C-alpha cells in the first residue's frame, strides 16, 4: 500500500508542477487556458475558480488515469475561435511567447528539483561518514592502495581543486560521475595521505552495482558483526546475532565488507567450502565451522549464509544554511541533468546499455522504498524523478516539449513555420520512438523486479 500511495503522490506532484509551468506562463503571456488536467480518462473531480485573471475561464480537472496531464489552450488549429478572442489564442502569439510557454513545463520540474534538494539540505539528513570499507580484490580502489578504514576528508576530479567530503553519499556521487564520465578521482584521507582512483580505465556502460564492484568501494566501513540470523548456513553453523567475526580460515577480518566478500568467495568449482570461523561472543573467543549456501547472484555463483552481515555505519547529520543549501540544490540539479543527458546520448550511440532505461514499475518500487526510509529520502527521490522528467521533455522528439522547441527554432531561422504535412510525419515518428523507449523501459522493469 505504501508503494502505491508514494507512487501516486509522486506522479500527481510532478505532473501538476510540470503542467502548472505551462499554465502559469500561458496566463502571463495573455493566452486563454481552457482546461488544466492532471491525469487522463474519467473525470474524478473538477472545479472552476470564480476569481480568475481577466480573459481566463479555466476548468481544473483531476482524471482517473494518473500517467500524464495537459493544459488545453485556445488555439485556432484545434477549433473555431471567435474574432473577439483571437488575440488570446496560442497560435497567434509571438514566437518568443510560444517558446516560453512550451519551455515552462520542463523548467518548472527543474526548479522543483532545486527546491526539493534545497529542502533536504536545510532540514538535514543522517548519512554515513566517508570511512571506506575494504576494497574489492583487484578493483580500482585495491590497486590504488586503499585497505579499508580510511576517512576521506577531501576529493575531486584529477586536476581540480580538492573539495570537502561531508559524507559517504557525497563521495559515492563523485565516484558515479567520475566513472560514467571517465574522470580519475583524487582522494585525501585524514592525516594527509592521498590516493588516485583511475576511473578513466573503466568501461562504465551501466550505472549499477557491478560498476561499484569495479571501482571497489561498495559502502562505508562497518564492523564485521553478525546481525539477524535467518534460515540457512549461519543458523546451521550456530552463529548468533552480535557475534564479531575475527577471522575466516587463515584470513583476519577487519570489516563487514571484507567478510561479505569472503562469504561470496566461499565456493570452489561450484561447491561450498567448509571454513573455520574465529569469532568473539561476549568475552569468549570461539571457532565454528561454516559452510555457505550456493546461490546465483547476477549470473555468477556466490556464497550466502542467510544472515545480515554488518552493523549500521557511523553516521552524521549533514545540514546546510539557507544560501548554501539552495546553492547546493541548484548544483546537484545541474549535475544530475548533465549526467542524465550524457547517459541518454551514450545509449543512443551504443556506448551505454539500454538497461539503464527505467519505467513506471521501477519508479513505483523506488517510490515505496524511499518513502519507507523517511521523508528526506522520499524528497531526494522526487527531486531525481523531477530532473529526469524535465530533461526527458526537453529532448528533441516531436511529441515532447523539446520537439516543439525545435519547430520554433526552425521558424526563428527560416522565418516560416513547419508545414502541416511535415508536422504530421514528425509526430508519427516521435510517437514511434517514444513507444519503443517505453517498451524497453517496461521490459527492463519486469526483468529487474521479476527476473
Describe this structure in words.
There is one protein chain. With 451 residues, the chain is of the alpha+beta class. 44% of the residues lie in helices and 22% in strands. The protein contains twelve helices and 18 strands. A four-stranded antiparallel β-sheet has the order 5-4-6-7. It has a four-stranded antiparallel β-sheet with strand order 10-9-13-14.
Short characterization:
By secondary structure, this protein is of the alpha+beta class. It has helices spanning 2-28, 95-123, 140-143, 168-181, 209-215, 233-237, 256-264, 322-348, 360-372, 375-393, 401-414, 420-450; strands spanning 33-47, 59-73, 125-128, 152-157, 163-164, 185-189, 194-197, 226-229, 244-248, 251-252, 267-268, 271-272, 274-281, 284-291, 293-297, 300-304, 307-309, 315-318. Helix 1 packs across helix 10, helix 2 packs antiparallel against helix 10 and helix 8 (322-348) packs across helix 10 (375-393).
How would you sum up the major sheet? 4 strands, antiparallel
**Mean pLDDT across residues:** 87
Number of domains: 3
Query: Order of helices and strands, N to C?
Result: HEEHEHEEHEEHEHEEHEEEEEEEEHHHHH
Anisotropy-based shape: elongated
Count of DSSP helices?
12
Extended strand count: 18
Radius of gyration: 27 Å
Oligomeric assembly: single chain
Instruction: List segments where confidence is low: pLDDT < 50 over at least 5 consecutive residues.
Output: none
Helical coverage, percent range: 40-55%
Largest sheet: spatial strand order? 5-4-6-7
Q: For the terminal residues, how far apart are their CA atoms? A: 23 Å
Sheet/helix structural class = alpha+beta
Query: Percent of residues in beta strands?
Result: 15-25%
